[in-house]
Write a structure and sequence with these properties.
Radius of gyration of chain A: 18 Å
Oligomer: heterodimer
Strand content of chain B: under 5%
Strand order of the largest sheet of chain A: 4-7-6-5
Largest interface: A-B, 35 and 42 residues
Distance between the termini of chain B: 23 Å
Shape of chain A: elongated
Order of helices and strands of chain B: HHHHHHHHH
Distance between the termini of chain A: 44 Å
Shape of chain B: globular
Number of helices of chain B: 9
Number of strands of chain A: 7
Largest sheet of chain B: none
Order of helices and strands of chain A: HHEEHEHEEEE
Radius of gyration of chain B: 20 Å
Strand content of chain A: 15-25%
Largest sheet of chain A: 4 strands, mixed
């Protein structure tokens, strides 16, 4: 019975943690992004939750907000002690982003990462970036850096709209 | 400055000087978790005092295993911190808005590396990353001279960025294999970022060298001005020799060939000459940053970086 209660608290903790959104890209949850790495509930004290997250980029200032949001959300869900741990290893990659997350990004107006970081070797092939508004592949990079560490700025030559592209990393 | 008492973690401002020509002081304090006031906004009744950000950033949350490892992390952390601070100057001053954003993004990544490395360095004797960034004086910093070179014009900043990111790419690539798991994790994370920074610097080097007569003239001048400070990055020290034997650190001299290869390729493409240190008027800087001897610009840079923290100890917003 104890195990069952623990399992149910763990399920709650996982669901609550996975529902926390990224403050910069609010259509994505931290689970969608691959930022959420692990959720545990203490077997001896089921009011204690330990959540492990990893930053997208080393200096990402959103980590503070994500940590606060996790503490708030889990406290609301009845956990009295919430510990948020940050790990750097394994290093975050856009390869962890789910297909559903990429679809959500596209609908939000951000072009999702194209191709896989893991496949990148010394020879870089720039895959076409599709405009999230009109779908055209006739786009160009305006700046390799964008509004957040994880994005670059693009422009669509068909519909003339600027848009963010989530960099392959 | 010395008359002020910092209000953050214990041991603030305590000086340690591990210069090779000086006696290493005993590190007296046992390790301790950061009990500094949390640097986060407190939401209502929720307290987050157990999870102060600094305590997490080392990745594995461990304490540096020895004074030597902590010192090595300090060297690398100071390099990243000082270049990050320098790049911040360009925000709202770069040649175009996109470049403001680019240099700010690079500075942010470097600040992330600095925070991880300085947190780890401070874990050995109970100092926080803020203690190390804001409460050490000039001679307690351990950054190499390249990172202390003034921003100059945009070409100078790009030349410095090219040398720095090409060096870091080699360093972090090798440091991933460190036997110290925290250094390996920090390096693995940083490598992908400095790869992107290096690409940015390469693109600008090609663009400036192949642009107008004026942009080419400035790029050549900038490379000539920055290259005397490249040599120091690859000098072995007793500390790195000792740690490299243990598999913890990377011997700086071992990175030189990889660096030279990349630079030769870029300069060939840009039709630039690699500066010859034996040419008339050329020189190789004595450096000395790893021993606390610094370029004249560092003191001014630190004054600006540290003034707020020292005038208002413990201030948050």
């Amino acid at each position: 019975m104890v195990t069952t209660a623990l399992d149910s608290r763990l399920a709650v903790a996982r669901e609550v943690a996975a529902s926390v959104c990224d403050p910069e890209v609010p259509v994505l949850t931290i689970a969608d992004l691959g930022v959420l790495r692990d959720v545990r509930v203490d077997a001896d004290d089921p009011t204690r939750a330990v959540v492990t997250i990893t930053p997208t980029y080393s200096g990402c200032p959103a980590m503070d907000a994500i940590r606060d949001d996790l503490v708030l959300a889990l406290t609301d869900a009845g956990f009295e002690h919430v510990e948020v741990r940050t790990v750097l290893s394994p290093a975050w990659t856009t390869d962890w982003m789910t297909d559903a997350a990429k679809q959500k990004l596209r609908e939000f107006g951000i072009a999702p990462p194209t191709g896989r970081a893991a496949a990148r070797g010394p020879i870089r092939v720039a895959l076409g970036v599709k405009c999230p508004r009109c779908g055209s592949l006739d786009t160009r990079e305006v700046s390799r850096f964008g509004s957040t560490s994880c994005k670059a700025l693009f422009e669509c030559r068909s519909c003339l709209e600027p848009f963010d592209w989530f960099k392959v990393h | 400055m010395s008359g002020q008492t910092p209000t953050t973690a214990a041991g603030s401002g305590r000086k340690t000087d591990f210069g090779a020509d000086e006696v290493r002081p005993e590190v007296g304090n046992p390790p301790q978790t950061s009990d500094a006031a949390p640097d986060v906004d407190l939401h209502g009744e929720v307290t987050v005092d157990q999870i102060a950000l600094a305590a997490e950033l080392a990745g594995e949350g461990g304490r540096a295993a020895s004074a030597e490892i902590a010192e090595y992390a300090l060297w690398l952390g100071d390099d990243a911190l000082i270049l990050s601070q320098q790049l911040g100057y360009w925000i709202a001053r770069a040649p175009e808005l996109e470049e403001d954003v680019a240099l700010a993004n690079i500075a942010l990544d470097l600040l992330g590396h600095a925070r991880s490395l300085l947190h780890y360095a401070g874990s050995y004797d109970g100092r926080s990353e803020d203690d190390l960034a804001y409460w050490r004086d000039e001679r307690d910093f351990r950054c190499a001279w390249l990172f202390q070179q003034p921003n100059g014009d945009f070409a100078h900043t790009i030349a410095r960025q090219l040398a720095a990111s090409a060096y870091w790419f080699e360093l972090y690539g090798a440091l991933r294999a460190s036997t110290d798991p925290t250094l390996a994790a920090i390096a693995d994370k940083a490598l992908k970022e400095v790869d992107y920074h290096r690409d940015h610097a390469v693109q600008w080097t090609l663009r400036l060298a192949g642009g107008t007569d004026e942009s080419r003239r400035r790029m050549i001048r900038a490379i000539g001005d920055m290259w005397p400070y490249v040599d120091e990055l690859f000098r072995d020290e007793p500390l790195t020799d000792g740690l490299a034997d243990e598999g913890v650190a990377v011997r700086p001299s071992s990175l030189r060939a990889g660096f030279d290869e990349v630079i030769a390729e870029v300069f060939a493409e840009a039709e630039l000459d690699v500066p010859d240190p034996n040419a008339k008027g050329a020189f190789v800087s004595a450096g000395g940053g790893r021993h606390g001897r610094h370029f004249s610009a560092l003191g001014h840079l630190l004054a600006e970086m540290q003034v707020l923290a020292r005038q208002h100890p413990g201030a948050t917003w």
